[in-house]
Amino acid sequence: MMDPNIDRIMNTPDVQVDTERALSRIRERVERERIAPVISAPRAPRAPAVSLWVKGLAAAASVAIIAVLLTVSGVAETILTIFEPKQVVAVPITSSDFSGATGFAQYGTLVWSTPPQPIDVPDLATAERESGMKVLRATLPAGVNTTKARYGVMPRTTATFTFSAERTRASAARLQRTPPPMPANIDGAKLFITGGPGVVQFYGEATAPAGATGANPLSGMPMLIIAQGKGPVVQSDGVTVEQLQQYLLAQPGISPQLAAQIRAIKDPSSTLPIPIPVDVATSKNVTVQGVQGVFVGDSTGLGSAVIWSKDGLVYGVAGTLTEAQIMAVANSLH
Amino acid sequence: MGAASEALRGVVAAPAMPASFEALFRREYSRVVAIAYRVVRDVAEAEDVAQDVFVSFYRKHPADAGYAPAWLHAAAAHTALNVIRSRERRGRRETADTVARDVPVDPAQQTEDAETRAEVRGALARIDERAAALLALRYSGLSYDEIAAALGLRRSSIGTMLRRAEDAFRKEVTR
After folding, report:
1. What is the ipTM of this complex?
2. In whole angstroms, what is the distance from residue A124 CA to residue A138 CA?
3. CB contacts, 8 Å: A30 with chain B
4. Contacts with B60 from chain A: Cβ below 8 Å
5. For site-directed labelling of A129, which of A306, B111, B123, B169 has its Cα 20 to 30 A away?
6. CB of B82 within 8 A of CB of B63?
7. DSSP state of A218
8. For residue A260, which of A145, A95, A93, A130 has the smallest C-alpha distance?
9. Nearest of A251, A300, A267, A305 to residue A283 by alpha carbon
10. What strands, in cross-sheet order, belong to the sheet with A157-163?
11. Above 90 in pLDDT, residue B29?
């Protein structure tokens, strides 16, 4: 039997740990499993409602507005990168389409010269001043509370991605994979990425689904989100969309079906693909503001979104509203 | 627009590990391992627990949250307790299997350390989880204030609860 002297039993000496090694281990795991960190929104000097902005973005993600936080492998989608979006197209994806595919980070280094830093603004006039763009106004459906309106501006964001064959080899080795070798003309090539500026409007507060009991899971989330902005524009210092497509779609982890869908995009340099996770959302083409857009509904019926591109800008309307209401809001923007 | 930029960010690369998370990791890692070690009594296993705890935190919470240390301490204790509790259940099944197969166990082959470890783990697995967590936190050096923050208790009740936890633990190891 053990000595019941609890001090002696429990007061074991502390173990020696190698914190830096442990940190490397967790870094590798986060990269391998493409785990995104939760980032606190930067403090806005003008308004205290930053948390609402963050919740708004979370809500946008939750209705699959544009798979913002879906950790789809960046690999397949990156082919769209050398481009300026003029139209949008839905690309259905399943978890098996990108099983095992890891983050784009394994192909090189991304350096944010101007990281995304959303700020809260008190009204649409300030949003226009801060973003330098005309902000479209919507006719809101009955029941959407305008007294809880919030506005955010995402200033222009820029980043540079540099491909690295060496980094790719090292990442593949860690994953015990043998991907096709990176062509010499891609190794060291740079992509210059700019996104924004953009403006997001949040209205109302989502209510719990009918019949739900207990805490409202949507508490604090906006009922309606209207977003507009300059879509991501990517420039390359030499490598072409076709070269990148050929290389990236041959990577392990990209399903032939997904590769075929990407190749089928007629004009990859001007088409913004909207990844639709088919197990949680459905999509269809719709006409909105006179152009083709993608309507996305999540399978719970709680939320929907419509996304389109017009006159050099990308627009999205999302919320816990019906399809008819979302479309009416989208078409009312002026 | 923000969503587009965010989409771009999500598409192009897994966001880099924030410096604030690395700082939190460096500050708290040894403490998290120490708490887990009080429970699992095995360094490698304690480090595995710590990795899981930090990854869970990374997925759901910003590293600069004020509650981060308290969250990590509580999660370390509970995750480690889950490990030994599931092992205890499996162990009982395995013991039953062993007896059923009539395979002799030679106690002399086990070191005293291994025996102590098994008894501590068994006792912690059997007592009330909050009491076990209290012991793990206290004996890894947390102050009453830190324990209260981690377990969501009033500081003034920690002393009494700790004594009860020690009594329960003592009963288990002497039974």
Report:
1. 0.81
2. 12
3. 14, 17, 55, 58
4. 38
5. A306
6. no
7. T
8. A93
9. A305
10. A108-114, A157-163, A190-195, A233-236
11. yes
